[in-house]
Design goal:
By secondary structure, the protein is an alpha+beta fold. The protein contains eleven helices and 13 strands.
Length: 387
Amino acid sequence: MRGKRALIASQTVILLASAVFAIFHIYTLAIRGRASVEDLFPVAAAISFAIILATCAVMFIADKLSGGSDGKGTDETGSDPMLEYLPMIMTKLGCIVFEYDCKDDSIRLSESVDGKDSPLIIDGFLSSLESNPRIHPSDVYRLREFTVSTDSKDGLSTIEIRLAMDGGEYIWYSIKAFKVFIGERSKVIGSISNIHEMKEERQRLIEKANTDPLTGLYTRDVIRQKVNDFLMFRGENEVGTLFHIDVDNFKEMNDLLGHTMGDKVLVDFAQSLRIACPNNAVICRMGGDEFAIFLPECGSAEKAKEVGEYIVSSVQRTYSNNVNSRTLSISMGAALTCESDTEFSQVYDRADKALSNAKAKGKSCFEIFDYVEETRQYETFPEWGIF
């Protein structure tokens, strides 16, 4: 608006100066006797009229280019209609506009997040984050760091947090913001968008990619990541147990009873594992007829043996196709994590050795990796390279 006023003022000065110059020139000619004033008057009028038309044309073009009173820029009141309509536009697009004043620690919203009569201006925003019931406790620190870092850098910043609705349900929101200077004040402005449905759909896709389509159990990649995470972040003296399971004689059962019955055996077995295992167990299908279980809080050989033997005895079941019948049984090996473990493969190899020992003993049994025995064998046969 200030630029437009300056342009109009400069054009007015040019118009007046041009008119004065034309009149002075005509008057000079008249004094020198080269022409009478009466003769020069039509010329002066024509020149002045041309100057006025030219100036009006320039003003009209400048007005169009600057977006004047035609509704594309500022109106006669000096306000910008686009800025006035912005909150309404963002609402239609499912966004809420906000402005955070860094100096006053206050935030102003275009509308409430829950769509009700919540305050649109919140004073002491950062200082009251911990006591704000709307913000998920796990997101408080992240939101604080996001606000502070956005105020201290240039460019767009994005964060996803959970906000509580009146019913207590947490909804996922995306916040996009950047820093601006209004006068000498630093402010963070941005938008808040509901991304709950998108987040849930993304989670469904992740779960689908990480889930075995036949049994609904986790895939091999998931249990590998879970064990690696446990090994990286475990506390002092924290021990978990990895169980490796093989369905005994599954190929024979599958060929004798048919592939449809074979699939049913695997599905039923997966459900039996869900029932037999604690809630914190990570159960996966490694592939084919091999399964694995990781218990992060199973820290003793006695506890591992109790769990393993219970699972071996509880899953036995007879299947028949009216011609042939076979009884499901499993062999199971287990290994406890040790202090030197840094990745899944180390624990898995020991559990696999225990499984091989169970099969060697006639199947349908449980074996746990014996550190003492393996150490003795390694000392006797060092070329084995077990440790």
